Predict the 3D structure of the following.
Amino acid sequence: MDESLLKSEEKAVLALRALYRKYGYLPFRMSKFEEYELYMRNKDFLVSDRIIAFNDTNGRLLALKPDVTLSIIKSGEDRPGFKQKVYYNENVYRVSESTRQYKEILQAGLECIGDIDLYDIYEVTALAAESLSLISEAFVLEISHLGLLSAAFDKICPDKAFADKALRFISEKNLHDLRELCRQHGIGERQCSMLEVFVTAYGEREKVMAALDAAWAHDLGAGTEEGPFEELRALSRLLDALPFSDRIRFDFSVVNNMNYYNGFVFKGFLEGISGGILAGGQYDKMMARMERSSGAVGFAIYLDLLEQLRQERSEYDVDVLLVYDSSTASEAVAEKVRELVAAGRTVTAQRMIPEKPRYKELLDLRSEGAPE
Amino acid sequence: MICAARVHRNEKGKERGWRDVSFAGEKRNQEGDRRAMLNIALPKGRLGERVYAMFEAAGYECPAIKENSRKLIFENEVKGLRYFWVKPSDVSIYVERGAADMGVAGKDILLEYEPDVYELLDLGLGKCRMAVAGPKDFYDDGSRTLRVATKFTNIASGYYGGIGRDIDVIKLNGSIEIAPILGLSDVIVDIVETGSTLKENNLEVKTEILPISARLIANKAAFKFKTGRIESIAEGLRRQLAF
């Protein structure tokens, strides 16, 4: 098969499927439709709460899936020691943030749900990075830890309004407004600087860990072998062995909804694409909301964004434009087309030259000839 | 009868110019010009000129920008910089969508449109206030829905939502001050600089919502791949704020 004929999204799907199968992830197939109520109960979890709903023939209210993860959570069961490892590539239907209209989006991803441990978190993080590396060499995967941020906010100022604003400023790398927020809440300079480190320390993992240890001294277990700092360090050590380890960085501006996500969260970027193309993390809180006792970690890749990388357009639709008329024998047209295709050229047989021709070569089989 | 086939070469004559995603094992296509240059969106007008002066003082000059012309895009190829003037309210769009790697936008615009960008620095320029203003004799006793005219519907809704006040937001695009005079609204939510326009229209500031100033913003993905250059510029601008 000539892979050059495939669209970028299609190539990515093939490459990602092969990768996930290597690590024992099985395909998760589902209907395009899902009970509308599932999304209504968890609409804050969705990127957009606008859903295409319709009544089935029996009156049930269904929706065109805006999300895949909720369907996967719904389908599983909790058993000690058991892990469900699945991958998917599915179309989802959401309102585009830019056009405010519904859009079909091709999404790929994987989920590891069950009795998960540090190895599983490492495996999913490594697969997220490898997924990006299969699409482009110029990628960055950034990791944050919501459990650490949450513990830090509790320690400095256990006020939800403060935490919400501080999280937003950290996500914006907005040091000036974070400082002002601390001032408004009467937080001292020392404690403010303990929060500032989540804005100022980013990039190389070892460098970030050193900055965190320095800012937090022994608070929250910094510099010791327990607590969320150690979780970051342990994951980092496992990631050290990967060939593209330097492209996996710590950055606390990666945030997700704290009502659903906990622990590690991550986001992937490709050079040339204006926003994140991959997002994921641990969503144990989401599991609990859906009455599941297991843990979960996974990610999604928004393959529709790959369109942004195709900026140079082909100058030609076809190598050869073959023109014939009623005096041309069909056998002659068929033979010429076969000959050209066999020579590896693309050809279109037409009765007239299109208004805006995009061909390299014109082959005119008309008896009267074409006007120049 | 078939006549001899006539063959015409199309003059464009190049091979298919397909830039594609560089899957492992495939030849990686050349980086586009857009990716090599650092693209900076500046707000057209007096604020933009003051902002450019800061970039210039930080060592990121582009002399062509000072030439009197109607051009909107200016390059310093040696330093790999491309500046462009855009409508102030559009700067965040250019940056969020990646057409600009960084830019300067007012805090009012950032709060109103909430673009997904990094806000790296408060430049301290273009200082003003977002405020609720109304006729001098107006008093909100809370007995009925408050009618609020504004360009900044998101900021107004957020502010009144935060204090639990039920409002009817009236979106206007200009001349906001006349809305209470003509009875279209009870109050307005708008930017106040000196307060003279309010005074001339017999209005006064009722409540200050928040201070506004120009902010240095950056595209999140560009920040990952042009980290050093964006950090250097931010640092060069930050140093000027210290004086």
Q: What stands out?
A: Chain B has a mean pLDDT of 86. The interface with chain A takes residues 1-3, 5-10, 12-14, 16-24, 28-29, 31-32, 35, 96-98, 116-122, 219-225, 227 of chain B (CB under 8 Å).
